[in-house]
Amino acid sequence: MRDQFLPFLPPLIGEEEIAEVAGTLRSDWxxxxxxxxxxxxxxxxxxxxxxxxxxxxxxxxLHVALAALGxxxxxxxxxxxxxxxxxxxxxxxxxxxxxxxxxxxxxLNLNPEKVRDAVRELKGARLAAIMPVxxxxxxxxxxxxxxxxxECGAAIIEDAAHALPAHYRGRPxxxxxxxxxxVLTAFSFYATKNLTTAEGGMLTGxxxxxxxxxxxxxxxxxxxxxxxxxxxxSWFYEVVCPGFKYNMTDxxxxxxxxxxxxxxxFRARRAQIAARxxxxxxSVAGLQIPACRxxxxxxxxxxxxxxxxxxxxxxxxxxxxxxxxxxxxxxxHFIPVHLHxxxxxxxxxxxxxxxxxxxEYQRLVSLPIYPRxxxxxxxxxxxxxxxxxxxxxxxxxxxxxYAPMR
Length: 406
Description:
Blueprint: H1 15-25, H2 34-47, E1 52-55, H3 58-68, E2 75-79, H4 86-93, E3 97-100, H5 112-121, E4 126-131, H6 142-152, E5 155-159, E6 167-168, E7 171-172, E8 183-188, E9 201-204, H7 207-217, H8 225-229, H9 250-281, E10 287-288, E11 296-297, E12 303-307, H10 309-312, H11 316-325, H12 341-347, H13 355-361, E13 364-367, H14 375-394
Parallel strand pairs: 2-3, 2-4, 4-5, 5-8
Antiparallel strand pairs: 1-9, 6-7, 6-11, 8-9, 10-12, 12-13
């Protein structure tokens, strides 16, 4: 038993980040300014993107992507039900219709075959975009989804909140898909992400589209504050669209600059932890380790273990409760969108409408995986999971362990 609780996904902030943030606070510029621009340039270079736009969240990146592409009423956007709600909220917020499509059984990513089926069944709306979610850091089947998007003339907006720094066929997620349709990629820098700016995000894509997105990101104004207030700037600006307030600050960018330089090391440590988990759990009846297809490089943002209650003798909720009793933090990613009251009531969804997403949701347990974890921390997680599996299979857990969670 651990002496202290092992948190699920805390950030790793070093003295370099702290010093950079402190220096920014002592400077003349703390909102969107030179460090934000520097962060954009370094990030674009890192993911081999043509351009990058720093924003205040990954949700903002998805929202301005839709706005910059002119997606709105009468349009449909296809995405996965197994995702965080914000990716579907932004589709609603621009007035388009979210069309949920079920997932692949192995990766839990958007299923291209089911996307094709949904395209054939689409009525009363134009398919304006496909929004694949690179769930947990495992890239989607980009080639298959690109082919569908090109056939339909639909844009691609990648939800890469988990996918930094993942690769598909040797190409970084965020670099684009060499497609005949627009491809934009949204990243999140929330506190739990592989790179954090506390809150923040980035949108990558073609420079001409990002320039439009930049206007949308700051009230629809043709000049930001630095262009108005800095030496040689002009006070004059025009509002050309009903934009948002989504800009990133230099304080956030200062943090991001050093996080970016440490990202490869962060990812290597995550991969080490994932390898230890895989080795320990792969042979345990009733546990399913995450898929990792050939030709991809996994970002390992989340290690999503799947519990088979019939074989293991314990349901997912009870499994999580047992981890907590052993002072191990865990979570579930995600409650499928169609189960939430707003979407259930608005579109009349039933749980079984997306059977794979619903079934796998009931099996998912996200284990701690982050660079701050020591080898002893990793061993504690291994020991806890293996003990729970052994005792549940033998029927020796206390009866209260099996009560459902609320």
